[in-house]
Amino acid sequence: MDVNTSAVSRAYASARTAAAPLPKAGAAEQGLAGLAGNFVNALQEHEATARAAMTGDADPHALVQALASSQMAVETVATVRDRVVEAYQEILRMPV
């Protein structure tokens, strides 16, 4: 039986990365904090665009885009919140 050592080492390396430990719990928390920060920054930018449109510094097209984008962001956050609440309720319903 002839075994190609480079193929074996590549297979081992790919299997090792698939079985690598998950990142620390702090990384997930930082990820969620980053997403929340991005959401807040997006809403602040959209609010600034709305103010500029009201004073005549921005065109109405930019206002419509900002409103649509902020609506999408709020709907996305509400959907994620609902899914988290549903998951928490499922965990509470589990028998111990």
TrEMBL record:
Predominant place of localization: other
Domain of life according to the entry: Bacteria
Keyword terms of this UniProt record: Bacterial flagellum, Cell projection, Cilium, Flagellum
UniProt keyword ATP-binding present: no
InterPro entries: FliE (IPR001624)
Record field: transmembrane: none
Subcellular location: Bacterial flagellum basal body
Stored Pfam families: FliE
The family this protein is said to belong to: Belongs to the FliE family.
Name of the protein in its database record: Flagellar hook-basal body complex protein FliE
Source organism: Tabrizicola soli
Lineage summary: Bacteria, Pseudomonadati, Pseudomonadota, Alphaproteobacteria, Rhodobacterales
Gene: fliE
